[in-house]
C-alpha cells in the first residue's frame, strides 16, 4: 500500500515537503537539500540565426504561392505561371501523343481502309420479272478492280503524267505539284492519293475543312498502303463518264478491251477523261476527247515517258461501244422494288441480277387497261398482288415519263367507304351477324352528322344491306356501337400502319389517309384469312420452323370470315360495285371520298387481289366519278383478262436482252367499253346491252324484253 500511497492525491491544505509530504518519484522533482553539492547552471539562450529564419519563411511563402496556383482554375493564367520548362515539355509531348491517338481513332471510324476497296457508286442492278424478262436496269456500271502490277507501263504512265507526276516521291500532298498546276495550268493540284481520299471518303463540297480532312486522310493512306495499292484503288474507282466507274469498266465500254490489253493511245484518251468525264466523253464529244488526249501525250513527253517521235506516231483511237442499254432505268414498280432489292446487298464491284415477283403479262395488261380508260386529266393507280403479298403488277400513274411519282406507294389519300370493311369485320368479331339490323335514318344530333349518298334513308337495314349499299349513317352508328378502339385494332391486325385517330366517328367513312398498296395489302389479308400480309417485290424464302413459330399471324374465325365474304359479294354483285361483277366468285368494296376527290375499288377473285384508285394530284374534285364507276370498270377490265392468263414460265436465260414486251390481248366480248370522258360506258351481257354513266342513278338496258330503265342502288 505504501507504493500506491505515494500516488494518492494531496489535499490543498497539505504541505508539499516534510513528514507526510508528497514527493515525486522522479529524481528531477525531488525536494532541494542544502547539503547537496549540486549547483544548477545558469540558463542561457543561443543567438537567433536570422538566415535560417529567412530561408524557412521563403519556403513557406513558396508553399502558399504553389497552393494558390494549384487552386486557381485551369483556364486562368495564374494556374500556369512559374511552371518550369520540363513541366511544359512533358505536357506538350503528352498532348501531341493524345492528339495522334485521337486522330487515328477518328480516321479508323470515319475512314476505314476497307472503304477504299469498295466501289464509290452502287453497282448496276438488273431487275427481272418472274419469267426472267428484264424490267429495269439501274445503278453504275462497275467491274472487277485492277492491279497495277498486271497493267503495262504505257497504261499507268498517262494517268501519272497528267494527274500526279511525283506520285512515287511525295507523302500524299505535293506542294510542288500544286505550284506547278497553278503556274502552268497542266496537271492536277491534288495528288492521286488526295483524289482517292476525296471520292472514297469525303463529299465533293469545296471547303477548307474538307480539304484539311482530305490532306489528313492522304497522309494516313500513305502510311498504311503502298504506292501501287493506292494507284490500284484509284484506277478501280475513278469515274470515266457514261456511268462507267473504274478503268476496267471504262476500257470495256469505250474500246471493248480489257485494261491489260489497252493500246497506248487508248490509255492516253482514258486518262484525259478524268478531269471532266462528261465534257470529254468520246461517245458524244470525240473532238474534245482527242484534244485532251493530245495534252496527256504532251505531259508524257515532258516527263520522259515517251519521245516526241513516239508521240507523233500515236494514232487517234477508234471508239468501239458495243453494249447498248435497251432496258428502261426506271418504272413505277422498279422504283419501289430497287431500294428493297439493295437492302442486304454487300458492297461489290460485280453486277447484280435480281428476280422479282412481277408478272410481265399482268404488268402489260395493267398498263394497257389503265391507258385506255377515259380518265381525262385525272390520274390512276393500280396494284395487283397475290394473297401472300407478292406484287405482280403496279401502275403508279398515267405516264412514268411525265411523272415518276408513284401514286400506288407514295400518295396517301382517303380510302373512303373501302375502310368500312374494317368496321364491319370488327362488328362480326364482336358477335354481330349479317342479318342483324341497324338504323338507317338520318343522324340529326351530335357534332358529326354524315349523310347518305343522294340522301336516301330508311328505318332499318341489315348489316349486309347496309354494307352493300354503302350506307354512311349505318356505318357511323355501327362504329359507335363497337367502339373506335376495336375498329382500329382490327385495322392494325390487318397491317394498316398509317395514323388512325381514336374517337373520331368520321374514321368509319375512311377519312384517315393511307396508300393504295397499304389498303390492298389489308384486303389480301382478308382473302387469305392470314394476316398481316406484307407486300413484297422480291420472292421470299420459305420460312423455317423457328420463323413459323415466332412470327405472329392472325386470322378470324371461320364464321366471321364467311360472313364478311358474304357481305363483300353482296357489295359487288347487287350493291355499289355491280360494275365490277365477274362470272366467278368475286369480292370487293367501292369507295368515294367527299366531293368526289377520290374514287376507289378494292377486291379479289381467284388468286388476285387488286386495288384501283382514280383522282387528281392536286386533290381537286373529280367529275362526279364514284368508286362504283370508273375504278370498278378498270378493276373488272383487268380481272377478266388476268384470270385467264397462263402462269408465267421462268426463262432459261438469267438475263435476257431487251425490255418487257407488251402482250397483245384482244378485248373479249362482254367486257365494259368506255364511250367518253364523262363516265359513259356500254356493257355487253349475256342477256342484253347496258348503257350507264357515272353519277346517274339509272342505267338503260336493252334485252329480249325490250328497252328498260333500271334504278341503281346508290354507289358509294
Any overview of this molecule?
The protein is of the alpha+beta class and 716 residues long. The protein is built from 22 helices and 17 strands. The chain has helices at 2-5, 50-71, 85-110, 153-163, 175-184, 192-201, 208-224, 227-237, 247-255, 264-273, 286-303, 308-313, 332-342, 360-371, 420-429, 463-469, 472-482, 484-493, 516-528, 545-550, 558-573, 630-642, and strands at 125-128, 134-138, 141-142, 244-245, 352-355, 379-385, 391-395, 437-440, 458-462, 586-592, 598-605, 608-615, 672-674, 681-685, 688-692, 698-703, 706-711. The strands form five sheets. The protein has a five-stranded antiparallel beta sheet, sandwiched between helices. The protein has a five-stranded antiparallel beta sheet with strand order 13-14-15-16-17. Strands 2-1-5 form a three-stranded mixed beta sheet, covered by helices on one side. Helix 6 (192-201) packs across helix 7 (208-224) and helix 15 (420-429) crosses helix 18 (484-493). The longest helix has 26 residues, at 85-110. The chain is flat and about 135 Å long. It starts with a helix and ends in a 5-residue tail after the last strand. One of its GO terms (cellular component) is outer membrane-bounded periplasmic space. GO terms for molecular function: penicillin binding; peptidoglycan glycosyltransferase activity; serine-type D-Ala-D-Ala carboxypeptidase activity.
